[in-house]
Write a structure and sequence with these properties.
single chain; 444 residues; alpha/beta; 7-stranded parallel beta sheet; 16 helices; 23% strand; globular
């Protein structure tokens, strides 16, 4: 039987395919544009036939039909590994649950501890050899598929075909059902233009980047600002090794700065695990031989990251306390996003020859009532620690970049207060004195 004959034999409607889900099953939707929208909608229409179906995903744009159709969660319960804005709202309403993780361990969780009764994955169309690209969600999808008892693919003609280093595809012989969704527009996640604060933060990081450095960027205004600085700079032959490929890399590539030629690991290839951004980004990664996708168990392994000389890791955070603990995923106990790969890259960059990691934030923020608050705190009060103080490296605000590596408690307090918003520095000094982490000789 040819791969095309096998394809035709497994072709089903969404309604037919979701008949394979039973009450009590664990169903996985993978991540971002791997979200199988047609299958999700069809599964939601079976609500009254099913009980206690548990669904997992991460960074899904929504709406998620199985969550929307069952507020009491008697039929479907949704879980996320990393909150998108939509998933955060579900968690805020008590209609979804967060599962703590670090991305490099996601495959390990699936292989050793988790049940996957049905995997539903959106993929690009099959090639002439019978392979589907796992596309923008390739970093997480293969480990889920390998664990699944039943695999259902939703084919979306809009998805880019991303070349891989390993395990970036699924073959028709591994699949139980195929559902054709036609051309379904992709989720585009773009950041607002960088502001003055973003540019100031980027300017503090920029001097640390050297020709030939390999760069990991998070997503948001500051990484975009850094991409603009790099695009307009004299830097040469930068490389990409990143969990999430976003539009910051596209700007660098279009300016001729991102060549990957001098990488010590996978020279000539920009390495990614996930891709989320604009339509232009998806067009850039599509069928691009200069891009190599790998599972996040590889991309985010600190021992792999460390093989990139001059590895520069740049991520955002929400707050830092005077001890150097970093919170990037919660406001108090309210889940905002997730640990993701921040700790992976902080660790890996710190192990790399010439490597540095930067955790960035504005010095203060203004709440809805118009009151300003410091992002540098005396100590955390219920906030979830994403990066422990023992691994904090550079912390950056618009007022500067300070290196906490090897620093004792009074040195950390002094350095962090120096980059706090001026309106809060005296108050922070008083708190540091009360916490016995301040010397009278410290700079005020």
């Amino acid at each position: 039987m040819s791969c095309f004959d096998e394809y035709r034999s497994k072709l089903r409607s969404a309604e037919e395919a979701v008949r394979l889900v039973k009450s009590g099953d664990w169903v996985d939707y993978t991540s971002n544009n791997g979200f199988p929208q047609s299958l999700d909608a069809a599964l939601s229409r079976r609500r009254d036939e099913l009980l206690h179906v548990k669904v997992r995903g991460n960074l899904l744009p929504g709406p998620i039909a199985v969550a929307e159709c069952d507020e009491r969660m008697e039929h479907f319960v949704y879980h996320t590994w990393h909150c998108s804005g939509y998933e955060r709202k579900l968690c805020d309403q008590g209609r979804a649950f967060f599962t703590p993780m670090i991305f490099r361990n996601l495959g390990w969780y699936y292989r050793n501890f988790l049940t996957v009764d049905v995997a539903m994955v959106s993929v690009s169309p099959m090639d002439k050899h019978g392979y589907f690209s796992l596309s923008c969600a390739l970093g997480v999808s293969r480990d889920i598929i390998d664990r699944a008892k039943v695999v259902i693919l939703e084919v979306n003609e809009a998805l880019p075909r991303i070349h891989g280093g390993e395990r970036e595809t699924v073959h028709i012989s591994e699949v139980d059902c195929v559902v054709e969704a036609g051309y379904r527009p992709l989720w585009e996640m773009t950041s607002p233009p960088p502001g003055e604060t973003d540019r100031a933060i980027a300017a503090h990081i920029f001097p640390h980047i050297v020709d030939g450095a390999t760069v990991q960027l998070g997503i948001g205004g500051m990484p975009n600002a850094l991409g603009e600085l790099i695009a307009a700079s004299d830097l040469k032959d930068l490389g990409m090794h990143t969990e999430l490929c976003s539009d910051g890399y596209l700007a660098m590539a279009q300016a001729g700065k991102l060549t990957n030629r001098r990488k010590s690991l996978h020279p000539g290839k920009g390495v990614l695990g996930l891709a989320i951004g604009s339509r232009a980004l998806y067009d850039w990664v599509d069928d691009n031989p200069g891009i190599a996708g790998f599972p996040l168990s590889y991309v985010n392994d600190p021992n792999v990251i460390a093989q990139n000389e001059n590895m520069i890791s740049i991520n955002g955070c929400l707050n830092v306390d005077l001890y150097g603990q970093v919170g990037s995923e919660s406001a108090g106990t309210r889940q905002i996003s997730g640990t993701g790969g921040q700790l992976d890259f902080v660790t890996g960059a710190g192990m790399a020859k010439g490597g540095k990691s930067f955790l960035c934030m504005s010095s203060a923020y203004t709440d809805r009532q118009g009151q300003r608050h410091s992002r540098i705190l005396p100590s955390f009060q219920g906030d979830i620690v994403t990066t422990p103080r023992s691994q904090s490296h550079y912390i950056v605000t618009e007022y500067g970049a300070v290196n906490l590596a090897g620093m004792n408690t009074w040195q950390r307090a002094e350095k962090l207060i120096s980059i706090a918003h001026p309106d809060f520095r005296e108050e922070l000094i008083k708190k540091a004195e009360q916490q016995h982490i301040w010397l009278p000789s410290n700079k005020r």
